[in-house]
Specification:
By secondary structure, the protein is of the alpha+beta class. About 45% of the residues lie in helices and about 10% in strands. Among the domains are: about 5-125, no CATH class; about 250-280 and about 300-335, no CATH class; about 545-670, no CATH class. The strands form eleven sheets. A three-stranded mixed beta sheet has the order 1-6-5. The protein has a three-stranded parallel beta sheet with strand order 10-9-11, covered by helices on one side. It has a three-stranded antiparallel beta sheet with strand order 15-20-21. Strand 18 (about 485) and strand 19 (about 490) form a beta hairpin. The longest helix has 22 residues, at about 315-335. The protein is globular.
């Protein structure tokens, strides 16, 4: 074959107003060439050469932070790839070079010295690449099982390390089958260094204090295969340091899985949540022992209803739905309407039955808090913290602070000044909207699938009418306590102070998603959201004025301005759609997806847990940083609910808008 140089001169150029997506092929090369063609390459030499030439900061990624080194060609964003077919291919621009790096790394992992490089993947448009990566790579990488096959991955989590060097797996007292199974697994795999512990039937604060230093993972549902072997019901984790099944993350992940046709995996997620209610009494913050005292925002019926839409309408599916409803009703009554969370208003609050410092929080997180209290007791911060953690010293105000902090962590919004230091005193818009949705869902499913009356396994009957009545009563109470007629928004209500707060948060939009707002309320809410909460990158967690000025004593909180999160976006989109404002919904979708795609194109495909939506940046440094931004060569996971938001969002855009997103046209241009 005659040697020739083929130039794929793909560039993303940033101008003052918009991004230009330029595709230019040399002379005789047809645009379909890249889509059809694979070129043979020497994988390791090509990978090493690319890194040497373009990864100028040495982080094993190619990003816009790799600068052109003066007097050299290194970092000039132009790379010549020598193929084994005697052709040379030029790849230009940060985005396409990072794609090339990722594709070469995937080829290297096949273990072959030479391999065909798919040019289509290298020059794939941004939105298509992100969506395909979620569908083909990320969901698989984030899927876990707690069984013999999956335990090594679970135990590799650094959070599994205990004070005595062992790993601990805790089994519910009533699940004797799981206990026998994991004991046999342990005998067959002594190298796992795991202790199998049976939980007591009643899990008290005293028991959790006893296992301090020996916290571990909680088992989830097991299934028996046809051959008699056992396997864990699979579930999807958020990613990064979150290597367990999280409460409200799971709902949004379920939506993404269903969008991508992963119906059985989505259904398995629901099965694991039902197992948690049956065995642990609630859908936990996550399946670790230190979360046994708290739940998370309740989305079970919402996820189950979406799953049920994708199941065949037969007796098996109906029985599955009956099982889910029974669990949801149990959790609703024992947790959310139980004495710890139901307030005198008739509305519910977030709470945590545990005491003291949340054990999952990283060392140093409460340093400023302990310092403040130590000064009041004329002790050093280290001395005071040690005494308090060991139980040798108590301070009622600090005890109350941690009660509020733990409740805030149950809310999923950890942390936000909306809830900081006050959460256990609030009946919140978000929680009560979710409970209204549960009441409405149960009423609807009983009516449509069970003729208006549902027979539960314990012999009791639930009626659609009774659940409709509960929903109507909650709506009335929310209008009384949470709706501010003057401002046209829903606000949290402080039961201790007996007044509404005035903190403007994205959670004010939950009533739109739950369909509890009247048409008049919805119109005012949507207007206020467009005015107060919409930023260049989507819905922001709170307004800047509600958050307040940032100082050393008042640092940034990750659920406040200027940060935006996937769950708030997805709930807002559906809320606007529920009240027929499709135009605003699509604009919000596009703003968020553009933010994801822009950052992925500039930073080697990164898909993180949250964004600074004011700057449209993943570079977030508040509190815990940003999970999903630290990796080498290629991101394997993205982040659970961000992945889901991208897949759901694409489905809400028009074909033209999806093409504009692929061209990285910003919203200011698309919706001018």
């Amino acid at each position: 074959m005659t040697s020739q140089t083929i130039i794929f001169n793909f560039r993303l150029r940033l101008t003052s107003t918009f991004m230009i997506f330029l595709i230019a092929f040399a002379d005789v090369i047809h645009p379909s060439y890249a889509q059809q063609h694979r070129v043979p390459v020497l994988v390791k030499p090509a990978l090493d050469s690319l890194l040497r030439d373009e990864d100028t900061d040495g982080d094993l990624r190619i990003t816009i932070d790799d600068s052109h080194l003066a007097g050299t060609e290194r970092g000039n964003k132009q790379f010549w790839l020598a193929a084994l077919n005697n052709n040379t291919y030029q790849v230009s621009g940060t985005y396409f070079l990072s794609n090339l790096l990722q594709e070469l790394k995937l080829l290297e992992e096949t273990g072959k010295d030479t391999a065909p490089l798919p040019l289509h993947n290298v020059f794939e448009p941004p939105a298509e690449r992100i969506s395909r990566s979620v569908r083909e790579l990320y969901w698989k990488s984030l899927t876990r099982t707690i069984d013999e096959r999956g335990l090594p991955h679970i135990l590799a989590d650094e959070k599994m390390k205990s004070a005595d060097g062992k790993h601990y797996l805790y089994i519910p007292a009533a699940d004797t089958m799981a206990l026998a199974y994991f004991q046999s697994v342990n005998r067959r795999n002594p190298g796992l260094n795991v202790s199998i512990v049976r939980l007591p039937r009643k899990i008290s604060a005293e028991y959790l204090a006893q296992i301090k230093g020996k916290h571990g993972v909680l088992s989830l549902a097991l299934r028996k295969n046809r051959d008699g072997s056992m396997m864990g019901a699979p579930f999807v984790v958020p990613g990064g340091r979150f290597n367990e099944m999280y409460g409200w993350d799971s709902y949004f992940i379920v939506l993404g899985l269903l969008r991508d046709g992963e119906v059985e995996l989505a259904k398995s997620m629901i099965d694991n949540q039902v197992y948690q209610i049956r065995q642990y009494g609630a859908i936990l913050n996550a399946n670790r022992t230190y979360y046994l005292t708290r739940s998370q925002p309740p989305f079970l019926t919402s996820g189950a209803l979406e799953c049920y839409k994708h199941l065949p309408k037969n007796s098996d599916s109906r029985e599955w739905l009956r099982t889910v409803l029974a669990a949801a009703i149990k959790e609703y009554r024992s947790v959310w309407m139980g004495s710890d969370r139901l307030t005198e208003t008739g509305l519910s609050r977030y709470f945590d039955t545990g005491e003291g410092v949340p054990p999952e929080v990283e060392p140093g997180h409460f340093e400023s808090v302990f310092k403040k209290f130590a000064e009041q007791h004329t002790m050093s911060a280290a001395e005071f913290e040690s005494a308090y953690r060991s139980g040798k010293f108590h301070d009622p105000k600090l005890d109350a602070f941690f009660k509020h902090d733990r409740a805030m962590r149950e809310s999923g919004h950890d942390t936000s000044y909306r809830l900081f230091g006050v959460c256990a005193d609030l009946v919140t818009v978000d929680l009560n909207s979710l409970l209204y949705k549960i009441e409405s869902d149960i009423a609807s499913m009983i009516r449509s699938e069970f003729g208006g009356n549902l027979q539960l396994p314990d012999g009791t009957t639930e009626s659609s009418a009774a659940w409709n009545s509960r929903a109507a009563e909650r709506q009335e109470l929310m209008n009384k306590f949470l709706w501010d007629e003057k401002r046209g928004m829903f606000f949290d209500y402080n039961v201790r102070a007996k007044k509404r707060t005035e903190y403007v948060s994205a959670t004010t939009l939950y009533p739109l998603w739950a369909k509890l707002a009247t048409r008049n309320q919805a119109e005012r809410l949507m207007h206020n959201a467009r005015t107060l909460l919409v930023t260049p990158g989507g819905i922001v967690g709170s307004t800047e004025s509600s958050r307040g000025p940032i100082t050393a004593e008042h640092p940034l909180r990750q659920w406040d301005y200027p940060y935006g999160w996937a769950p708030h976006q997805m709930l807002a989109w559906q809320g606007f759609l529920n009240y027929t404002d499709t135009a605003t919904a699509q604009q919000l979708v596009y703003r968020w997806l553009f933010t994801i795609a822009l950052n992925a194109s500039q930073y080697n495909g990164t898909v993180p847990e949250k964004f600074d939506v004011v700057r449209r940046s993943h570079q977030v440094f508040a509190e815990y940083g940003n999970v999903g931004t630290k990796f080498s060569y290629i991101t394997r996971e993205g982040f659970g609910w961000t992945n889901a938001s991208f897949q759901i969002g694409l489905g809400l855009l028009t074909e033209t808008q999806r093409e504009q997103l692929n061209r990285l046209l910003p919203p200011e241009v698309v919706f001018k």
